[in-house]
Structures are given as C-alpha cells and as structure tokens.
Amino acid sequence: MSLENFEKNALRCLRCSNCKWVPGAHVKSWRFAQICPSIFRYNFHAYSGGGRVITAASLLLGRTELTDEVVEVIYKCQLCGGCDIACRPSMGGFVEPLDVIRELRIKAVSEGFLLPEHMMVIEGLKNEDNMMQEKKADRGNWAEGLEVKDLSREKAEVVLHAGCRASFDPDLRGVIRGAVALLSAAGVDFGIMGKDEACCGGRAYGMGYTGEFTKYAEHNVEAWKKAGVGKVVMVCSDGFGALQNLYPKVIGDMGIEVVHISQYVSELVREGRLVFKKAVPLKVTYHDPCNLGRLGEAYMPWSGEEKRLPGPIIEFDPPKPERYGVGGVYDAPREILNAIPGVELVEMERIREHSWCCGAGGGVIDAFPDFALSTAQERVAEARGTGARAIATSCPWCVRTLRDAVKADGDALPVYDVIELCVKAL
Amino acid sequence: MSIKEELSGIFDGDRIVDDSGILSGAMRNDSFVGGGMPACVVRPKGMEEVQGLIRWANDKRMPLTPVSSGVPHVRGGSTPLFGGVCVDLSGMDRVLMVDREYRVAMVEPGVTFYELRPELEKAGLKLPMPLSPRGTKSVLGSVMEREPITIPKYHVDMSAPLLCAEVVFGTGDLFRTGEASGPGNIEEQREAKRKQVWDSGPGQISFSRILQGAQGSMGIVTWITVRCEVLPTVQEFLFIPARDVSELTDFVYRILRRKLGDECFMLNGFDVASFLGEGEGIRSLSDELPGWLLVLGISGYEFYPEERVLYQKEAIVEAARQFGLAPKAAVPGMDAFRFLKGVEGPTEPYWKRGYKGSYCDIFFLTTMDRVGGFIHRMQDICNERRYDVRELGIYIQPINQGRSCHCEFRLSYDADNLKEAERVKGLFDAASEAMMKAGGFFSRPYGNWAGMAYNRDAASREAVRKLKGIFDPNDIMNPGKLC
Amino acid sequence: MSIPEQAYKMLEAVVGPDNISQDPTMLDVYSFSFMAELQRKGTGTKFVPVSPGAAILPSNTEEVQGILSVCNRFGLKSKCHSTGFGPWNAVSWDDVVIIDLRRMNRILEIDEKNMYVVVEPYVTWAQLQADTMKLGLVAATPGVGCQTSALANCTSGFGMGPYNNSMGFHERSVMGVEWVLPDGSVLRLGSLGSGNGWFCGDGPGPSLRGVLRGEYGSLGGLGVVTRVAIRLFDWPGPAEMPISGPFPYMRLTEDALDAMKLFLITFKDRHQRNEATRLIGEAEICYQMYAWGHGFLISSVHELSHLIPRKEGDKRPSQDPVIAMTLASHSRAELAYQEKVLMAILEKTGGTLSNYVEIPGVKACIFRYLTRPDYLFTAMCRFASGFWITLFDVIGTPNSLTEIEDAAIGSLESWEGRNILPGCADSYCQPMYGGCHVGYLDHSGGIYDVCEAASIDSFRNMVMEVNRPLIEKNLIRPTIASNEANQRAGKLMSNFHIWQKKVKAAFDPNSVSDGGYYIEVDDE
Question: Which portions of chain A are predicted below pLDDT 70?
Fold first, then answer.
C-alpha cells in the first residue's frame, strides 16, 4: 500500500467536521465534546483527521508539496484513531483517515522529511532495540531480584512482554514488576525475554519507519517461537495494538495468541486463580488507552476491490471490515477494578471508543512533548471532573503522560496502572 | 400647477382630498407627535396608483406618509412630520385570498381585523390578533408594525404572523418578498399551487423584516399574506387574579414553556375595568377588581376538542396550584362574558378611550422577570408627576413564545383639557425616558422615542440609514421618522 | 499566491504567530469544499480552483475587528469559516484571508427562564444541546449534523431538521446578535444594541435581522457574526442523551422514552403523507418529525441492513414515503391525547404504523436522528458510494412540493444508467415551520461518484435539465446563494439581486467580505 492507493479515499472526504468530535449522541457536555487532540490544540483545519486527509489529496493531486510546516502538521497527531471512529459511521471504508495519516508519514519518511527527534529515537532503536534511547543491556534490569523464567534460555507457555516504556522508566517499575507478581500468584507458566526483549516496533511504524517495524516484527515472532511461546501477554497497550493490528499485516498469522495483561488478569480473576483479598478503598476513574480500546480490535484483513454496481453505487468486494472500535478491550480492565474490594469506579465522559488520548502516541511524546503534555492535562481535567481520587489505566505510556500532566498541574492526583491496584489488593 | 392638479393625472378627483377637517384628522394623534399639515390626502385603489404616486413624489421630492388604519390615530407613526401628501390606503380594502388548506390569507392595507375575521371564520380559520384593536385598525398596518398578538404560542417569531408582502419601495420599484417574489406572478404561482406562504428572502435578505417596524419609511406595502390558524371548535377561558404581577410571572413562564393554553396576557385592574365600563364607572369598577388578572384561553380543534381543553385545563390548574394560584372561570365583580366580548373586539367606544376620551401608550419590550421593576418605576413617576396610579392601565403581553414580553402603560387624559393634556405629555416624555433608562427596549420607536432609541444605538441608526438610502434614497417616505 | 508582507505582519500582530499561516498546503486544506466538484468552472474535485492568501484564527471580537481593519487597509478580501460543512465553505478568489473562528468556541450564557442560549461561532449543536438538555431545554438542531456550528446555521448558512416542525425554521431562532461588519465596526442587533440584553433581535424600527439573512445567510459575504442568542425550547426528555453503545450498535437506555413516544409511519403515497402531516401540524401534537424514504432511515442500523426493504433487483432502499416522529410531553394526559389524535389522523389518511420502530436498533437510530441528528445526513454517503446530493432545495407547502415531485419524477427517471442514480430516496420532505405549515423538499436527487468526471458531469447536467422546466412552470425557484446564481435567479424573483447588491455596497463598500456565495457589486 502507498498513499496513492488512498487517493479516492482522500477525494471522498465530505469535509463534514465529524472527525473533530465525539459522535453527537455521546456528547455529554460542551467541555468534553472533542475527540481530536491535535485540532483541539492547534486549531487550523489541517490539524484534524479530515484536514490531513485533504492534505493527502492536495499532495497527491500535485497542488502542493511537502514542506517542513506540513510535515509538522502530519506528525502533530497521536494516531489515536479518534477521527477514524468518528468518521466511519458516515463514510465507512470510503475515507479511513487513520490509514491515510499513516501513509502520509510513510511518504514523508521516504522522501526524507525526517523529524530530528524521531531520527534520534529510530537511531536508538536500531542500535539498542528500544524506543527510549537507553542501553539494550539495561533492559532487563527491572526484573532484578525477581524469580522469573528467562526465555532466552528457558521455555514457557507465556511470554510477558514488558515493553520499552515499562522496562526503562524507573517510575513504572511497579507496573511491570506488579505484572510478574500477578502472574506468579496465579501460577502461570510464564517467562520474560529480559535484556533480549526487543521493541515491538509499533511506534516506529507510527512514525513512518515501516522498514524498521517489519524488522522488529519478524524478529520478535521468531524469538517467541524459538522460546516455545504460545501466548504473548503485553503490558503495554501500544504494543498490544501493534501486535493486534500491524503484525498480521506483515507476518500474517503469527501462530501465537496475543492478549493484553488486563485481559489475562481478568480471565485469571474469573477463573479464581487470582483473588483480591485486601481492600483498596479508592474512587477511581478509568482511562481507556487508544491502542487497547478503539485501536485494539483484532486485525481484519481486507484485500479486495471497488465494484461499480448499476449506477454509480460502489461496493467493496468483499465488503470492507467495519472497524468501529467495538471489538477493543474495554471491559477487562473495568472488570478487574470492580473485582478489587473497595474500589469505586466512576466514568469520565469520553470513554471506550470515544476515549480522549493520553497524548503519548504517534511519536508525539518524542517530538512534541509540550503537545503530549497538554493533551494529557486535558484528560486529567476530565478525570478531576468525575470526583475520582485516582486515575487508573492500562498502558505504561498513558501512565507516564498522565502522571507528568498531574505534576505539571501542581496536583497530587495519583495515576495507577490497573496492575498496581491489583498488587495492592493481593 | 397645484399638487392636486398634478396628482389628478394619477387619481380620480374625488380621491384627492384637501378638506381641512380630513387633513387635520390625518395630523391628529394621541401621543403628542407634532408635524406638518399635509397638502392633501390621496386614496389609491391599487398598486399601480401607488407606484405612480411614488414615482411622482420622487420627481418632486414630495414627502409621502402612508397610513392604512382609519382615524383616530394614536401613536403618531402616520403623522406627517413635513407635510407633503398623506397616502390613505384604507380604500384598498380587499381580502384577496383565504385558503383553508394552506392556512393563509392575503389582504390589502385597508382591511380591518373585523372585516377579515368573518371571512376567515367562513373558512374555519382565525388570525391571532392584538388585544382588541380599534374598529378601524388595519391588519396590514398592525402586522407591519409588529404589534404583539394575544396568543404567545403563535408568536413564532417577532415577525409573526407576516408571511409575504408586495411593496413599492421609495424608489418606485415594485417588489414582492418571500416566495411571492417569483418565479411567476401571483396568478402563475397560484396555478403552481404556491400560495405565498414562505416568507424568507428572496435571496439572502429578509426584505419583509426590513419593512416591518419601518413606519412606512421604506415604501408602501400594497398587500400582505398572513399565516392563519385553525379556528377552535371549542374554547374556554380561565382567569387568575393576583395582587401583584410578580405572583403570576413564574407561572406564566411555566405554562408558556410547555405550550399550554392559547390566549395568555395580563391586565391590571384598570385595564380590565376599561372593558367593562365607561367613564367614571371604569374607575369605581377598577377599585373592586383584583389588582391583576391573567387571562388564559384554551382551545380545541378538529380532533377531540373537548378532550384537548380538558387535559390542558387540568395541566394549567395543576401548574397554578404549584405556584399558589387558583384559575377560575369567573372573577367576582367581573362580567366575564362582557369582558371576553370586549377582548374579542371591537369595542364601542374603543376600550382605551372609554375613560377620558384620549390616551397614550408607553410600550416597550423586556423579559417577564423584569416587568415588576418597570411597573414600580412607572408608578413612582406617576406619583412624582401627580398622575393617579389608579388610572394607570397596564398590559403585559408575553411574546416570542414567552421569551420576552410587551409591557404597555396607558395614560388616559381628556384632550379638551389642555392643562391635563400638557401634564400627561410631560409624564409621557419623562416616563418614556425613564423606562428606556431602566432597560426597556423600545423596538417600535414612535415619535420622540426614535431619537432616544437611536441615541442609545448609534450603530443600528447608521445601519438603518443605509437601508433608507437604498430603499428610499430621496427620503420621500415618511421622512423624519426613525432616524 | 500571497498577501502583502506588511499585511501579513499586521495580521500576525493581531492574533500572534501561532494563529496565522501561509503555508500552501495548510491553505489548500481550506480550499476543499463539499460539492465543489459540481462547480462548472471548478477543478472536477472538491478543491476549488483558488487558494486563500492566509488562514487566521482570532479568539475574540476585537481580534476579528483588527483583522477586518487590516483587510480594509490593504484591500484584501476575507471570509469567515467555522465548522465548514457546506458547498459555500471555500473562498471564491485567490488571496482571500480565511478567518477560521475555531478559537471562538464558548457558550456564554444560558438563560433558562427566558429560554435562550448565547454562543460563539464554534459551538456545535451537540455541545449546545449537551449543556441545555441538563436544564430541560433544546434548540432546533439541523439534520445536516450536530457537529456543525449553531451560530453559522442560524445566522449565516442554511439548513433545517427534525425540530423545525414544532420550533420553526432556524432563521427564526435568532435573537440578539453581535456582528462585525466588513468595515470592522460592531453592530449589535435588537435589544443587545440598546444595552438591554439578548432577548430580542429586532429593532429599533426595521429589523436588521433582515440584512443578516434571508432564506440563506450571507455565507461569509457580509462580515463576521461573533455571537448570537438562539432560542431554546422545552425538552421533556432525559437530561442526557439516553444512548448507550457505539455506532452502529447504539441502544436507547430504559427510561429514554418516559416522556416521549416514537413512531415510524408509512404511507402508500406522498399525497397521503402530506395530508397526514398537514393534519398533524394543525393538531399541534408533534414534537419532532422527519420525512424520508423508509429504507434510508434505518440504513444506519448495521445489524438490520438485511431488513432494509428494497425494490426487486434494486440496490436502493425502499422508496415508501415514511415519517418518523415523536410526541413529547411532561404530562401523561397530554401524551395520551396526542397519541389518540395521531391515531385518528392516521385512520383518516391511511397511514400505517411500522413495527420496525420496535426493533431496538431502529428505535435508537430514529431517536438519535430526531433528537440529536448526527449521521442522518452524512450516513447517506456511506450507502451511496461516498456521495449523494440534493435536488430542488425548495420550501413550500407539502402539496406544492408534491406537485414538484410529480412533475420531476419522469425526467429524473430518464437519467438512470447515465453514471448517476437519480431518486435514491424519493421525496425527502421535511415538514417544518411551526405545525407543518410549510415543508422543505430536498429530494435526494442522486448518487454520483465524486471520483469520476463522467458521473459528476452527468449529475450536474441532470440538476439543470430537471430543474429548468420546473422553474419555467413556476414550480420552483432557481438556485440561489452564490454571486452568479443570485444574478440569474434575481431576474425571475423581483430583481432581488439588485437590492442585495445595494445592501452589499452599503455595508461592505470596500468589498472586504468574499461575496462569492453572497453577491459582488461589480460582477454582472
């Protein structure tokens, strides 16, 4: 696929502005009606999902060219998928803004429009197999002192994939070590790749570096198969999204089951293998990570064509999958929270398919940290509005940005990964 | 050549009048608006004569003052300020169309409410009216001046019930507003089953809105279509007495928000008494009546009319109870039948003249929650100026479906008593200014109000002058009015 | 294309460097407009053949005034722009300064008692409704979608929707207005101008709302409206939209229809339907109403798509005339009365209740479309190969609209198979304006492929050929609301274009506002 394949998509944009907003029926207030962090902050229409689709059209028709300013617009987007979800009820598979934006980035990279910040991250990836510009050798340090299988030497049914953020961010040690504690408590046969764990490559894809992504996708699947793994448990939602949606694009059927830690823990709780004995009296609100929720649907491959029926009615043959975010992981984290004694769950206005992004995705936290921060601050404001005494979520990147936002606000509202609350309840 | 001679090329001789009594009548008004004696009054019979007149007036730079209603005039809107020619349109008095299916009527300027009403009733229609207009009041004149109607739910817009209009602008150009503009002339539109009901435009300007409230200063309207409503098959009235209007306003907000009831307006005791008595009898009656009366009408139409009236009545009574009010079918001391006949109109003598023969109204728009403040202020000014507040008529008419209200104070006086007239004039001027300062919006600025209103809103004044420059560049149409 | 450097610097000084752009691609995004491929002298795509000179984002009225002052000084044209969904969205000449009002997005006041809300340009209908519903109030939201600007729809654009039947045409919802004229001065309409608040938009004397808009607003051609008070109406429903679940699996929550009843009614023909809506209007029982081809109304309910009745061998949904409507009241007695009357009317006119409405997904869909129209308009595009468009665009009494359809059907059908699909939803007659007094005929005239030149040409030609005899028979008015269209149409409509030009000349002497969708003084 290339951007050229999306020319008709781009020309079919209605210019309706639905891409900027939570779908109307779900808008609960003036304050929290928007879904696109990019146009929320930057305001010009080009910053909306539709605006980038039109940008694609403009470039494809040769009306304008890529410039540094345009490239910045293309990258000031978390690839959160909010625009895509908001567009589909109108246009189904006819526009698909998220795919168009991804292709714009691939085009930008292929034509040498590289953001310096992303170049550094990718350089780090190439050299050290992680997106944090840290040393590969230090990747497994988070597991120090833990008794857990090292899958570079041993075999297990399940691999717990820590992800780059949780592996290297000392503030998030509690998340990944907590995941180990939970699986151990449940008696799961699992291991970790430790220092040999490599980035899933998903963020590289989002930045437009498809070559790097493919390399890591192939490497990881091979490594897991070599370790005899039948199931990958992802701690990071970003990684979960990558494995769910991007890996099948390049690898096809991996032959390995992919679950998010929240799904797995929820299952363990239901099976009675994990029991929460201690109360955690806390009113929390849950933030749905984009890549776990609306972008966490299983990959739906489509390879077909447009068919012209009598008159100009066009159908896709076979029909394009209807990706409305419905199949994402929303209930599992909530089930976990509801299973923890003392936890009271209150919901924000923008939840599930219409969740507001934490701000970290799409390379934004690397290239435009102020934008990532302001996006997260908007989310924290929404959380405060519920009266919750803490925010819970299911992704280390979300935890990071939301914690940074709370701190920047001069506040002390705790932000937990759901795993951390589980550990408190063990 | 005299003016009369010049105009004889347009009008037959008997339709050019220079009788001094007629000319004086054209000048006279109860609101102390002065002016210049016109040279003559002309009585056109149709649009072509109106157009010919306006073209002639442009050539001669002759002021024209159109009037549709018969004498006596009240507000001074049709009093010529600079002489010229009075255009008496009362002779253009045809009801051009009544259409039951499309609920529309087309009338010429001279059609009064009481001439139109029976024509509409024959077709099973009614036109929501102002409160008991005088017998000579023109439908067109009233509608073009945005007079409030007594049924707030039908006041769907400040322009209601106006639909389309035919007008000869001050330039002499003929124009039709809304869908009446075309394509096709009126007959051709009717053949295409179009009945001049869509009032917007044409194009991206609402010409009818510019004509309304203009006091004839943009052109002469030669017919209008009005939106009519279904004639009720069943109707009942309820009355809610109160000592103070503030007891009523929250209840009125409630029922109007829920579109309960039809007629809905408030009168103080003096205004109520004015429907029931004459002369000094009004004053004594007023002393016996409640300070305030809320009048509510409830109608049933084609389907289950009695049931409609019943459930509405029950809902109104329940709502009233929540506000500590008790709607009644009759009020002690008040002949309800006579009162309602008076409200329906016409009254003879005209109910506003019954006390002292002449009157002037101070009216403006505000919101119902502010009415009490205006009333107190008005009463204070009356006291300051030694006008007996017991002779002050007050009428509150919710409009725009309850979003605002027409607030009207009536000052009665004997025009033959010059001292009294002078005193009332002073009160009129002082109270008008005070009401404006207190926040009353004089949306229909007659006489001196125009200067006061536009002084507060210079930007609107400039805009209105621009419009005047477009539609009447030679300033022949009712010059000096407005701005 | 560019504007003078000094002008740019002055504009930048007004709004700050982050709020202005001259990047060609950023500007080209503003050149993309709904339906632009139909322009005769267009590019054949949704890009118009011209490009703005700059895009600027003011945050308040004073900045708008500053921008217009700069434009006046340098002889630049400008065009205001908000949510931008409409064929009039893009500029009409090169180097026009696009004034994107996105930063002016506040709800300033909700007066619950006097039932109005004051908004800035970038408040959407969904936002407005979300806040007012909590107070038991709603505004008449248009069918084009609740993601559009409330201010623009009421003051500057066009559109109607399901509430118009009980709440009137959007143009009527305007109360006080704050309006920056092309010369940069501020005009406040009605009571607002006299310092008395927002409750009345008319006077003193003539109503300047008449200058603000007619059937359409000025579409950017006469300054910038910065604030407006919009009428609110009683809402007896729940304080929040009672919808759970994502599209297309939305469902009504249990208490949703406590104070409302929802009906889907089919008729054998349009005449039956028109008579029924006439009587429903006279009985004053209806709260929301929409009239559409049966199949379209439920085409957005995914799991029910196999139930969409279709003609044999025809991929289009069924064309049976149908209305969806609600009765609504705080009072059970009133609801019962309304329903009794409705049944009597249906018995008299031959309407049949459709039991599709009991299917949960259908019920939720129809409720959504009537209460907060979201994908009502745009979802038709998903069905229609990505695009459909309207025909006629005329307002009149329901029976006069039927005359038009009867006259047009034959010629419409002759266009089948010519790269377009005419009559994809039969009549779409939206009775509106207080009690079904008049309706809007927006015949879903055709589906065409926006990516195929032959299809676009075919549709354009169809519109002209179908409409021409209707205009000649005085059944419909010609197209309006563009500089060119007004000058053609005016000749058949009391020469309104001449007066509109005079208004333009008086209020915009330097032609600072882009009159491409309004009128230009020098252009004949």
Answer: 310-311
Are C427 and C506 contained in the same domain?
Answer: no
- B161-213 pLDDT, tens per residue? 999 999 999 999 999 999 999 999 999 999 998 999 999 999 999 999 999 99
pLDDT score recorded for residue C524: 52
A300 to chain C, any CB pair closer than 8 A? The answer is no
CATH of A116-270, one of 1.10.3470, 3.90.1720, 3.90.550, 3.40.50: 3.40.50
- Cβ A312–C455 below 8 Å, yes or no? yes
Closest chain C residue by Cα to residue A35? C147
Say yes or no: ipTM exceeds 0.90.
Answer: yes
Q: pLDDT at position C430, please? A: 61
Q: Does the pLDDT value for residue C375 go beyond 90?
A: no
Distance (Å, whole) CA C195 – CA C185: 17
Q: Which of B198, B215, B400 is nearest residue C395 as measured by Cβ atoms?
A: B198
Chains touching chain C at 3 or more Cβ pairs under 8 angstroms? A, B
Query: What is the pLDDT confidence band of residue C425, given thresholds at 50, 70 and 90?
Result: very low
Q: Tokens 């151990």 label which residue? A: A184
For residue C455, the chain A residue with the least C-alpha distance is: A312
Does a structural domain hold residue C30? Answer: yes
Same structural domain, C30 and C49 = yes
Q: Search chain A and give the residue with CA nearest C99.
A: A44
Are C447 and C313 part of one and the same domain?
Answer: yes
The pTM for the full model equals 0.96
Chains contacting B (3 or more CB pairs within 8 Å): C
CATH class name, domain B93-230? alpha beta
Residue C496, helix vs strand vs coil: helix
* β A305-308/A314-317 pair status: antiparallel
**C492 and B188: CB-CB below 8 Å?**
no
Distance CA B446, CA B450 (A): 6
Mean pLDDT of chain C: 88
Assess whether pLDDT exceeds 80 at residue B447. Answer: yes
Are A315 and A307 in contact, with CB atoms under 8 Å apart?
Answer: yes
For testing contact with chain C, the best of B189, B204, B437, B471 (most C CBs within 10 A): B204
In this predicted structure, the answer to whether residue C317 has a pLDDT above a threshold of 60 is no
Alpha-carbon gap, residue B99 to B123, rounded angstroms: 7
Q: Are residues C489 and C462 in the same domain?
A: no
Write down the mean pLDDT value for chain B. 95
In terms of domains, do C376 and C412 share one? yes
In angstroms, the CA A217 to CA A170 distance is 26
Residue numbers of C between 152 and 171 with CB closer than 8 Å to B: 168-169, 171
**Class of the domain covering B234-437:** alpha beta
pLDDT at position C426: 46
Q: What is residue A358's predicted lDDT score, i.e. its pLDDT?
A: 98
Give me the pLDDT at residue A183, please: 96
Q: Which chain C residues are closer than 8 Å to B402 by Cβ?
A: 114-115
Is residue C412 pLDDT above 90, yes or no? no
Query: Smallest Cβ distance to A25: which of C84, C372, C448?
Result: C372
Q: Is the pLDDT of residue C216 over 90?
A: yes
Q: Say whether both C460 and C493 belong to one domain.
A: no
Q: Is the pLDDT of residue C384 over 60?
A: no
C-alpha span between C396 and C402 (Å, rounded): 10
Strand A390-393 relative to strand A415-417, pairing: parallel
Scan for tokens 């009906």, then name that residue: C263
List CB contacts (< 8 A) between C493 and chain B: 181-183, 202-203
Asked whether residue B468 carries a pLDDT value surpassing 50, the answer given is: yes
Q: Residue B197 has which token pair? A: 């009901």
Q: Convert C178-201 to b/e letters by CB count within 10 Å (16 or more is b).
A: bbbbbbbbbbbbbbbbbebbbbbb
- CB distance B456–C195 less than 8 Å? yes
Give the best residue of C25, C31, C303 to mutate against chain A (max A CB count within 10 A).
Answer: C25
Distance between CA atoms of C178 and B158, rounded to whole angstroms? Answer: 18
C248 CB neighbours in chain A (<8 A) are 89, 322, 324
In this complex, is the C-beta atom of C218 within 8 Å of any C-beta atom belonging to chain B? yes
Task: Give me the domain span that covers residue C502.
Answer: 483-517
| CATH 3.30.43.10 applies to domain B3-90 | yes
Taking the CA of residue A141 and the nearest CA in chain C, the distance in Å comes to 42
